[in-house]
Specification:
Elements lengths: L2 E12 L2 E12 L3 E5 L6 H9 L6 E6 L4 H4 L7 E4 L11 H11 L6 H10 L15 H13 L5 E5 L7 H16 L3 E5 L3 H7 L2 E6 L2 E7 L5 H11 L4
Parallel strand pairs: 3-7, 3-8, 5-6, 6-7
Antiparallel strand pairs: 1-2, 1-4, 8-9
Helix pairs in contact: 3-4, 4-5
């Protein structure tokens, strides 16, 4: 399995606070990895750093064998990102939003891809409605559509299940498995341990900026993961 995401000894500080402390992590093509950890553990900072939105103080990040230092910000085309902000325009419809981002990625004749993407997140029936009329879960699904629109080989999903009801969460589960089967590397965060086990090939625990546990989900039970999560959060 070729590694599409390589994170090597990455450190990041904000002022006097150390947020990432020598993180090492790789995600292979076709692999789904879930990053678990309490609020403040560094999960969002790590995804922002991998995406190029934040620069590490030390260490190296490579995507498909290239780094931002050598490939420049064109490497962002390699990435689909869902963050805590949707990056959508409320006064536009779903296709209008996606057309805007298609232009940013220089996509030619994107209509067919836009339709496929909206079908994939079950928003095609609401395509003519303005985004401001959408529920929180629908906005989150459109944010996921935006992230996968340009067919990136690397997906970074920061709590993509936030605001989703059970049906929408199951739709996201099936979509993640399909996207992973297409040889993408997917790194996502969630606070839901059951979804982590169901969705991922591997789970990693991030505590105080360090990965303290990593295991394939095939080797874990729910009780074992909960025990690891509890123990990882205890003071040393």
């Amino acid at each position: 399995m070729s590694e599409l995401i390589e994170i090597r000894k990455v450190y990041k500080r904000y002022g006097r606070k150390s947020v990432l402390r020598g993180v090492n992590l790789s995600v292979g093509a076709g692999e789904v990895v879930v990053l678990l950890g309490a609020n403040g553990a560094g999960k969002t900072t790590l995804l922002r750093t991998v995406s190029g939105l934040s620069k590490p103080d030390r260490g190296e990040i490579q995507l498909g064998g290239a780094s931002f230092s050598t490939a420049g910000y064109e490497l962002r085309r390699y990435i689909g990102l869902v963050s805590h902000t949707s990056l959508l325009y409320d006064n536009l419809s779903a296709p209008e939003n996606l057309n805007f981002f298609a232009r940013l990625y220089d996509m030619q004749a994107p209509a067919e891809r836009i339709e496929w993407t909206l079908q994939a997140v079950d928003l095609w029936r609401r395509r003519r409605d303005l985004v401001r009329t959408y529920s929180r879960g629908m906005v989150q699904r459109l944010a996921i559509a935006r992230a996968i629109l340009h067919n990136p080989p690397v997906l970074l999903l920061d709590e993509p299940d936030t605001g989703l009801d059970q049906e929408s969460a199951e739709m996201l589960h099936q979509l993640i498995r399909k996207l992973g089967a297409d040889e993408r590397a997917i790194l996502l965060t969630t606070h839901n341990l059951e979804r982590a086990l169901a969705w991922a090939d591997r789970v990693c625990l991030l505590v105080d900026g360090r990965i303290v546990f990593s295991e394939k989900t095939a080797n874990l039970t729910g009780d074992e993961l909960r025990r690891q999560y509890r123990e990882a959060g205890r003071p040393a």
